[in-house]
């Protein structure tokens, strides 16, 4: 699971609504996977990122070099874009957990796959 | 053993004990798994007690192994109490062997585990990498002596049952004899109320007692079927009827060795060599879920390398050779069940399937259960095969994805094996599916995927530029649930975002022209196969269809008016049983069960094998999948119930109704 994917995930436990975002990330196994740098792609992705959630997740993984926010003129700042490319696309969490910030429910993450399935009692319907 | 390894001509008491345990582990591996260890150092090691099957996880074991050197690969076969590690160099492997033997670690449940390591050869490693014996399967070699084998073979009197229906006049089929209970081939069951007089032969009784005492078997059987296979004879793949026999089914091979094929519902096949005088023990999954059969032929393909007897036949082409078959006689012992079967494989269980006939759901709870039994469980079982069938991405879906702007965030809800996740590299696509097995396949392909329910998608609202839902919503059992699934798709979209939805159409003919599938229903085996298995496998090239595009919306709109009062012809009455669809025919009901054939390619397999001397046919187990096929306009109408969308396109494509909608 890449950090960009994590940035989209939100706990769907009954009653938590938008407070299920972002799930708290804990990792026991992380791998760096090189991905071809596509600056245009990253530029378009930046506005879609929930920055606070990204910082929190990166912090939990003890990642250094994560910009605190998009800098002015980021579209042309290759250094910034490369950093974001690395953080969003090259860091893969293989083993760990995702925790609903509201209910505390823990979802397992194994072999890079989060299992966000709820038991019947926990679903919204 | 500690790292300060002392001179080994005089071992301490602890070291002797450790050595004994190591040897025991070695023997267990050989006997139960067909794994041969070697006494010289190699790059690869078997780690006994360090497996997924005994609750040791990768992230517990790997760090321990990595302390000894660079780990090239760590293989952890599922359900096995061991794993295989390959180090970069023999030195590192030796270090692991020296330092980790007898090492105590803690498993997933917090219990202490002691690891025992043994070297294995590269060939063995490759084998294990490819296959493992079906769970619950054992082959015990040389379980009887040559003298006993001779005695048993001579004790069978094949000529006595001349007026018995089991007597085979022609030599076309194998010969059979029953003891204890008569086995009936018409229904593949025994008559529990009519035991045969005499019970099992006395010599068998004493042999069975011996095996029980020595722990080779756990239960005393009360039924015996003796089969004699001449070269060229076989038996079609089957699962022994659940309701007829208990868990442990054992088969003694006499006279000649043979290869028996085991097949999992998802298509995986494992050929297993059964040597002479060996006992095959099938329990658990290998008894209840995998089919077993013997291909009718005169030669088997076996391992060429010496010393390899029972176990899996490798797929390493360089080590194979042909083995001429001789006359093989098998003594299959089983214990007759007196109560209905309650195994954990309900999909292939005749007791459990009989008890729960699928009916049209009356409540959300019933719908959930129906989906669990007839959608989720089936996909989990067939995942591998489902994925391996040819999957050409459908052009219109590819078109939709390729038209999205670069840098779009796209969610594939019900992504299956990830067929569409890699179509457009300019997009960031994430997939999710209910089936862990299918998501695993996505992961193997390096896609971003997770497991969840389509009615509760754990993606934050308004985050997606687009969503696709291909052949998913037709698996929901009530109209409310189908609309709820659509609602989820829309929730994920940002304003202006688009969703593409495909569902299976009730109408397999369009504009009064039958689809190719229906027109060529007698000859087109491939088509039948497609329809019977999965919508997404359909490669229906319906050339007669009018151009797909906005013109179709006009066509559809007029029929929506018909839909106001349920324009579709077949309405399901609540509480009625769900019909089972007959492949190669048009749909007569919107809610139905579509068979998926266990073997996978019933159309292609032209040979019709009689099951036994009576020549009765058994097509093998079948999985039924629930579908609600959509009428023309129905999908559109369902979308229109959502307030915040507008429909951009509505069309028919290859037997599916399709909608592209946009969130306003």
From TrEMBL, chain A:
Its main location: cytoplasm. GO terms for biological process: rRNA (guanine-N7)-methylation; tRNA methylation. GO terms for cellular component: nucleoplasm; perinuclear region of cytoplasm. It is found in: Cytoplasm, Perinuclear region; Nucleus, Nucleoplasm. Keywords: Cytoplasm, Methyltransferase, Nucleus, Transferase. Gene3D superfamilies: 2.20.25.10. InterPro entries: Trm112, Trm112-like. GO terms for molecular function: methyltransferase activity; protein heterodimerization activity. Belongs to the TRM112 family. This is Multifunctional methyltransferase subunit TRM112-like protein.
UniProtKB/TrEMBL annotation, chain B:
GO terms for biological process: DNA damage response; tRNA methylation; tRNA wobble uridine modification. Residues 220-337 form the Fe2OG dioxygenase domain. Its EC number is 2.1.1.229. It catalyses: 5-(carboxymethyl)uridine(34) in tRNA + S-adenosyl-L-methionine = 5-(2-methoxy-2-oxoethyl)uridine(34) in tRNA + S-adenosyl-L-homocysteine. Pfam families: 2OG-FeII_Oxy_2, ALKBH8_N, Methyltransf_11, RRM_1. The keyword Acetylation does not apply. InterPro entries: AlkB-like, AlkB_hom8_N, AlkB_tRNA_MeTrf/Diox, ALKBH8_RRM, Methyltransf_11, Nucleotide-bd_a/b_plait_sf, Oxoglu/Fe-dep_dioxygenase_dom, RBD_domain_sf. GO terms for cellular component: cytosol; nucleoplasm. Keywords: Cytoplasm, Iron, Metal-binding, Methyltransferase, Multifunctional enzyme, Nucleus, RNA-binding, S-adenosyl-L-methionine, Transferase, Zinc. The keyword Transmembrane does not apply. One of its GO terms (molecular function) is zinc ion binding. It comes from the Eukaryota. Its cofactor is Fe(2+). It is found in: Cytoplasm; Nucleus. It is an enzyme of class 2 (transferase). Transmembrane segments: none annotated. Belongs to the alkB family. Interacts with TRMT112. Catalyzes the methylation of 5-carboxymethyl uridine to 5-methylcarboxymethyl uridine at the wobble position of the anticodon loop in tRNA via its methyltransferase domain. Catalyzes the last step in the formation of 5-methylcarboxymethyl uridine at the wobble position of the anticodon loop in target tRNA. Has a preference for tRNA(Arg) and tRNA(Glu), and does not bind tRNA(Lys). This is tRNA (carboxymethyluridine(34)-5-O)-methyltransferase ALKBH8. It comes from Capra hircus.
């Amino acid at each position: 699971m890449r950090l960009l994917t994590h940035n989209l995930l939100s706990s769907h436990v009954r009653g938590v609504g938008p407070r299920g975002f972002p799930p708290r990330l804990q990792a026991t196994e992380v791998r760096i996977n090189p991905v071809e740098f596509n600056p245009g792609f990253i530029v378009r992705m930046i506005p879609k990122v929930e920055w606070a959630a990204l910082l929190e997740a990166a912090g939990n993984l003890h990642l250094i070099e994560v910009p605190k926010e998009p800098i002015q003129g980021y579209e042309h700042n290759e250094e910034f874009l490369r950093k974001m490319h690395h953080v969003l696309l090259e860091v893969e969490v293989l083993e760990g957990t995702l925790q609903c910030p509201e209910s505390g429910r823990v979802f397992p993450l194994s072999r890079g796959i989060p299992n966000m399935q709820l038991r019947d009692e926990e679903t919204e319907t | 053993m500690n790292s300060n390894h002392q001179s080994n001509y005089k071992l301490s008491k602890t070291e002797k004990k450790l050595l004994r345990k190591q040897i025991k582990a070695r023997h267990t591996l050989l006997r139960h798994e067909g794994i041969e260890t070697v006494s010289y150092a190699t790059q690869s090691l078997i780690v006994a007690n360090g497996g997924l099957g005994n609750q040791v996880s990768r992230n517990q074991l790997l760090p321990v192994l990595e302390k000894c050197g660079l780990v090239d690969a760590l293989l952890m076969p599922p359900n096995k109490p061991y794993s295989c590690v390959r180090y970069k160099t023999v030195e590192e492997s030796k270090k692991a062997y020296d330092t980790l033997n007898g090492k105590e670690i803690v498993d997933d449940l917090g219990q202490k585990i002691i690891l025992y390591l043994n070297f294995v050869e590269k060939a063995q490693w490759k084998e294990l990498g490819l296959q493992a014996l079906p769970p619950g399967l054992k082959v015990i070699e040389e379980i009887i002596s040559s003298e006993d084998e001779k005695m048993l073979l001579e004790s069978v009197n094949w000529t006595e049952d001349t007026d018995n229906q089991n007597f085979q006049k022609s030599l076309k089929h194998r010969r059979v004899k029953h003891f204890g209970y008569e086995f009936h081939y018409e229904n593949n069951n025994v008559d529990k109320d009519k035991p045969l007089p005499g019970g099992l032969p006395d010599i068998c009784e004493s042999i069975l007692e011996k095996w029980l005492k020595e722990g080779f078997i756990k239960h005393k059987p009360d039924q015996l079927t003796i089969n004699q296979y001449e070269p060229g004879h076989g038996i079609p793949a089957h699962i022994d009827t659940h309701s007829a026999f208990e868990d442990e089914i054992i088969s003694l091979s006499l006279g000649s060795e043979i290869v028996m094929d085991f097949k999992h519902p998802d298509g995986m096949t494992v050929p297993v060599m059964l040597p002479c005088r060996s006992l095959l023990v099938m329990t658990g999954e290998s008894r209840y879920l995998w089919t077993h059969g013997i291909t009718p032929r005169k030669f088997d393909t076996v391992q060429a390398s010496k010393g390899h007897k029972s176990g899996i036949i490798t797929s390493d082409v360089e080590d194979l050779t042909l083995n001429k078959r001789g006359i093989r006689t098998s003594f299959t012992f089983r214990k007759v069940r007196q109560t209905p079967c309650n195994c954990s494989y309900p999909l292939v269980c005749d007791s459990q399937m009989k008890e729960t006939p699928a009916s049209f759901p009356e409540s959300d709870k019933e719908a959930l259960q129906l989906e669990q039994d007839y959608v989720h469980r089936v996909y989990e079982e067939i995942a591998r095969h489902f994925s391996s069938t040819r999957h050409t991405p459908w052009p219109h879906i590819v078109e939709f994805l390729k038209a999205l702007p670069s840098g779009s965030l796209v969610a594939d809800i019900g992504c299956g094996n990830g067929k569409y996740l890699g179509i457009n590299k300019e997009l960031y696509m994430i997939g999710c599916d209910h089936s862990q097995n299918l998501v695993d396949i996505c992961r193997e392909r390096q896609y971003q995927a997770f497991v969840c329910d389509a009615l509760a998608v754990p993606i934050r609202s308004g985050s997606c530029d687009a969503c696709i839902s291909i052949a998913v919503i037709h698996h929901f059992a009530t109209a409310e649930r189908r609309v709820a699934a659509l609602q989820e798709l829309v929730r994920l979209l940002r304003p202006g975002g688009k969703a593409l939805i495909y569902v299976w159409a009730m109408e397999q003919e369009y504009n009064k022209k039958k689809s190719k599938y229906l027109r060529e229903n007698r000859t087109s085996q491939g088509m039948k196969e497609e329809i019977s298995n999965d919508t997404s496998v359909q490669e229906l090239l319906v050339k007669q269809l009018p151009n797909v595009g906005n013109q179709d919306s006009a066509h559809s709109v007029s029929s929506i008016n018909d839909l106001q009062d349920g324009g579709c012809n077949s309405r399901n009455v609540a509480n009625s049983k769900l019909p089972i669809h007959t492949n190669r025919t048009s749909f007569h009901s919107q809610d139905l069960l579509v068979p998926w054939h266990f073997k996978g390619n019933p159309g292609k397999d032209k040979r019709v094998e009689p099951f036994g001397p009576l020549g009765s046919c058994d097509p093998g187990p079948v999985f039924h999948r629930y579908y609600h096929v959509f009428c023309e306009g129905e999908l559109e109408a369902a979308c229109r119930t959502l307030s915040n969308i507008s429909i951009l396109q509505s069309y028919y494509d290859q037997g599916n109704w399709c909608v592209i909608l946009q969130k306003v």
